[in-house]
Automatic annotation (TrEMBL):
Family affiliation: Belongs to the cytochrome P450 family.
Transmembrane segments: 6-21, 171-192, 212-232
Taxonomic lineage: Eukaryota, Metazoa, Chordata, Craniata, Vertebrata
Residues that bind heme: C439
Protein name from the UniProt record: Cytochrome P450 2K1-like isoform X2
Native organism: Thamnophis sirtalis
Length: 495
């Protein structure tokens, strides 16, 4: 595939001259106290020095030379990278309003058109996020009602895994289906069987689009959007979007036809009630179809991808460190026994809680974070950053900050335990990001992780397939928009 990259770079070089005639830097180089950064190359900026498969690794290395706040240029896009717990916290928490915007990235804008929650802007983002949070709470997020749905799904997942009778399996699909069914039950008011063709297709569409985010031509598209017609990944992603939107349009119409405002049974019903209310007004509102499909897509993807991949990391790590798996199982046996785990059990299970937290820290699911942008001109830690600047609050630099973690590059559950074995919170634990743009489904994800993980280890011991030792297990992630484990198989042996 290297020759394809060389051809694309050659095309960039040839076509870049046209861009130079049309677009200059958004920064005024005469501004005092701009963040430092490496020298740039015309057209490419700092592209040629980046590890394109793991750009966050390059950023970590650059921070050692230029400090925790530095400037990068990718193509024509100027951006500022924030590294380390203290710097990221200062920006996202202490100065949350100044860093609350979402950067305008062609890859995201092309797909969502600025609607929804995750990649939207300004008032649209505020209205949709506020609605999503309140509605998710109405349908049980963080409450016993949603916990019951998770425990029911745990039972289905356990029975499905048990059918493999300890033979090697790739759990990617069934884990994704089990986790996804929780957010699906909120969005659509129902769950799907793991073999349901429509459900499997939806999961594949979302998975493909996240995988496409790792490709070189999407990176090029982000830097030079006018090259879009030359890039195959974008075309594939737009085809997936069209298929997804067709499904959501059908769901929109179906729920609208059956809507009973006095008996709302799903997130979609609640959205449609607001949609009807707005139609009665003369002013244009936010509860229209474009926001509907983007919000539902955002919640579906966010409620599936990160949690299911964290659980896949958890099982891989339990195979890699069987002594840790055994200690978790001993705590489960002592505190829960054979009954169904419940959320309140977490308070008396410090080691299990520590292991789950350490899985999240070590897995580093979104290493580069989602891009932010400044809402105003700001002087931040002595450096001037203009309004609208693309900001990368590098989460991997927080989760592996050597000043915050004893063994930042190792899997070490003791990060979350004190000398007496009690669970301790760590301020630098930010897998859900922080501030105004923190993950809206954090409470739901935490509940899912605990209940699924404890249920799995209560029922099974996870071992490498025959002929594979724990030393053969590769913990090198596949990194793109998210960091996922390489494909693996496991043997789930009944306890």
């Amino acid at each position: 595939m290297d020759w394809i990259g060389h051809i694309l770079i050659l095309l960039l070089f040839i076509l870049g001259i046209m861009f130079l005639l049309k677009k200059g830097s958004s920064w005024n180089s005469s501004c005092p106290n701009l963040p430092p950064g490496p020298r740039t190359v015309p057209i490419f900026g700092n592209l040629l020095m980046m590890d394109l498969k793991r750009p966050h690794k390059t950023m970590i290395e650059l921070s050692k030379e230029y400090g925790p706040i530095f400037r990068l240029k990718m193509g024509f896009e100027e951006m500022v990278v924030l590294t380390g717990y203290e710097t990221v916290k200062e920006a996202l928490v202490n100065q949350a309003d100044a860093f609350a915007e979402r950067a305008s990235v062609p890859f995201f804008e092309d797909f969502t058109k600025g609607f929804g929650i995750i990649f939207s802007h300004g008032e649209n983002w505020k209205v949709m996020r506020r609605f999503a949070l309140s509605t998710l709470r109405d349908y049980g997020m963080g409450k016993r009602t949603i916990e019951d749905k998770i425990t029911e799904e745990c039972s289905v997942l356990m029975k499905t895994i048990e059918t493999y009778a300890g033979k090697p399996i790739d759990i990617t699909t069934i884990m994704g289906a089990a986790v996804s069914n929780i957010i699906v039950s909120i969005l659509f008011g129902k769950r799907y069987d793991y073999e349901d063709a429509t459900f499997l297709r939806l999961l594949k569409l979302f998975s493909e689009n996240i995988q496409l985010s790792r490709t070189l031509d999407i990176l090029i598209f982000n830097m030079f959007p006018k090259l879009a017609l030359l890039l195959g990944s974008r075309k594939k992603r737009l085809n997936n979007r069209k298929e997804l939107h067709t499904f959501l349009q059908d769901a929109f119409i179906e729920h609208l036809n059956d809507l009973d405002e006095n008996d709302q049974r799903s997130f979609i019903d609640s959205f449609l009630v607001r949609h009807r209310e707005e139609k009665k007004r003369t002013t244009e509102g936010y509860f229209h179809f474009e926001n509907f499909r983007s919000v539902v897509s955002n919640l579906f993807a966010a409620g599936t991808e990160t949690t299911s991949n964290t659980l896949r990391w958890a099982i891989l790590l339990m195979m890699k460190f069987p002594e840790i798996q055994k200690k978790v199982q001993e705590e489960i046996a002592k505190e829960i026994g054979i009954r169904q785990p419940r959320t309140e059990d977490r308070l008396k299970m410090p080691y299990t809680d520590a292991v789950i937290h350490e899985v999240q820290r070590f897995a580093d699911i979104v290493p580069s974070n989602l891009p932010h942008a400044t809402t105003m001109d700001i002087t931040f830690k002595g450096f001037f950053i203009p309004k609208g600047t693309h900001i990368i609050p590098l989460l991997t630099s927080v989760l592996r900050d050597e000043s915050q973690w004893e063994k930042p590059h190792e899997f070490y559950p003791e990060h979350f335990l004190d000398s007496e074995g009690k669970f301790v919170k760590r301020d630098a634990f930010m897998p859900f990001s922080a501030g105004r743009r923190a993950c809206a489904g954090e409470k739901l994800a935490k509940m899912e992780l605990f209940l699924f993980f404890t249920s799995l280890l209560q029922k099974f011991t996870f071992q490498p397939p025959p002929g594979t030792s724990k030393d053969d297990l590769d913990l090198t992630p596949v990194v793109g928009l998210t960091s996922i484990p390489k494909p693996y198989k496991t043997c789930a042996v009944l306890r």
